[in-house]
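Anyone else keep sequences and structure tokens together like this?

Example one:
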Amino acid sequence: MQLVKDIRTVLRTKTSSARKSKLVHKLLAALIGVAAAAVSGLLATPAQAAENGTSFFLGGNKGPMAGATPPPGLFVSNNVYIYSGSASPSLEIPVGGKIVAGVDADLVLDMPTLLWVTGANVFGGRLAFAATVPVGGLDIFAEAQFQTPLGAPGPSIEDSVTTLADPVLTSFVGWDSGNYHWQAGVSLNLPIGDYKAGQLANVALHRWAADLFVAGTWLDPALGLDVSAVIGFTVNGKNNATDYKTGEEFHAELAISQHLSKEFTVGLVGFYYEQVSGDSGAGAALGEFQGRTAGIGATMGYTFHVGKAPISLNLRYYHELDVENRLSGDIGVVSLAMPLWVPGH
């Protein structure tokens, strides 16, 4: 949780007038600091869219090797997801049961995940289970709030929180055939995180959500080229605290990376998200509020060893494009993954 607070401190140092011109430099500084802290710790020890204008899907959360499944064993990974964005004063957004405009938000989400790849064979693939318990920090400011859509604007409002988000359970089956690796599975959002009704800042969605996904990776060892893609479809439940039912969502991610050496990779990444059905419920005062976004950026990775254990570090940066009915901004992701136990090793 301290890591989340440290990165949020960096993000809060931006002034609104210099946000876009300095954001990239501040995000890179935050990413490098997080990566250095993680490596140091390891070495020292053996659109209008959806409620809140956000979704269960986090653009850029998946990257290179997304379709590859490790051998049977226990693995741990951690994604630090950093988002800084804003919305026009002319765009009204439903947030925490309120209608606000001119939103400016900074989010840091730390997502440790435990992965168990079983020895069970399902349709010729390896069955796996994962559990993620995120901790997040959110700072949000709105220039105006409204009692009704298109009503008279009220005073500005701001809020912040650092707390537990909703846990996520995932199960998938992974296959391999030569240079091809692919998965099919489902992730389930459990609405048991720390959520405060009527509060502007919440990192928990407070609704059931199921994301059905397929992922594939083509990795050619001779060329050192990795092409990975993920396609998913999210079915959302209702937030009972706000009586808001978010519509269903489609998303896709792509990562193309080249190994410059056995340890170092660079590449390009991108994602696309679109809400394909409208919002509903008494809390959906703005109507169907469907939206979309796309992001494009770059990635770099480095693999090293602590003892005999391989550690994979990956950094990704995205800038959002073609945004409708959502906040628009920039994303930074730091991913770290390592095995805990692999039979025979």
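And example two:
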Amino acid sequence: MNDSLPTLVLSSIGIGTALETLIGVGLLILLALIIYYLLQIGNTKVPDGKKLRFGIPQMKLTFFLLLGIFVLWWILKNQAILFPILTPFIVAGVFAYAFNPLVTMLMKLRLSRVQSTAIIFVGLILALTGFSFVFFPMMVNEITRLMDTLPELSQNWYARFTTWYQETLAFDFNLPTTFEDALAYFNIEVEAITDWLFRSSGSLFTRLGSFASNLVHVVTIPVITFYFMKDGDKIADLSKKAVLPKAQPWVFPLADKIDDVLGGFIRGQLLVAFILGILSSIALLVLGVEYWLILGLLAGVGNLIPYIGPFLGAIPAVFIALTTDPWKALWVIAAFIIIQQIESNVISPKIVGHSVGLHPALIIFVLLIGGALWGLVGLLIAVPLAGVLKVLLVTILQWFQKTYPKMFTS
């Protein structure tokens, strides 16, 4: 009990001791001073026309940039504490943001914002109730049967694959006669792979189950979403008033660009995933694939992740079809290819467009980073965050080009 109250408070929120905080702030100030004096030293070596001006506006920019880096570092350091607290607000904010255009459209019919929000909520409740009565029992039944038959399906698939291997690859390419010997020949540890898959899937389902079973989240997310939708205009007005008049000429256009990126991507991806989930379910039902409803929903959810998501969403359906009939698996693959061609050439260009404006290679790169940092959640938020970061970097670059044009001319 020798710790002082400030130390305990700072430790409880994850900053550490008061001394550590002072050291961090001091390092930020020291870094700003070093940058300032390096610029002053450099200005003594160049003509007046090429000197870099570092006055009060530039010092403010540097300070807020370093402060933003410090805040980001603090959030990443304390994500285990912050994310469970912020999750209901983040999810509610995404829902409110996605439905805001619908609220605006209803308000054009001379309805108040509260009435528009209430109509949307009543519609959602009726839709979810109807879905629960019609499809929820079927989904529960399919999931239960799938969990019961999954070990048998895996064994059947493994037996089919080993038979195919012995009759084709082992004979044609002079490989070991049994599949187990081939795995040992290539030093592939199946048990390690299966253990990792079961641990990953078990961890994912445990997190999803704990989130869904948490009564606090189930109750608070709809309530927070309602208030975000009802008071969306008030929140926007308060945010605008908080911006200094001098900063409004560049903050408001920047906010509009970020809104275009986030709005187009979030609303577009949700709608595209919903459409593709329906198309995938219909295709699997027509092809006679078991568990068509849950597999179609998985394919739709997979489409929330750009590029690699459709591939991941199709794997379970192909796997289930392969355990019954290899030809049916080929038809499933063909169906998913056709659906993806429709999505990429017709649906997405009309709904999503090029709202993010990132190169496909860069999107895959940020997906890998997001998946490595935050797993499934990171895959879902990596692309919109990268789009926002691109808008910020382009704005900063344009500011430098306008303020220091001689730096960008030969």
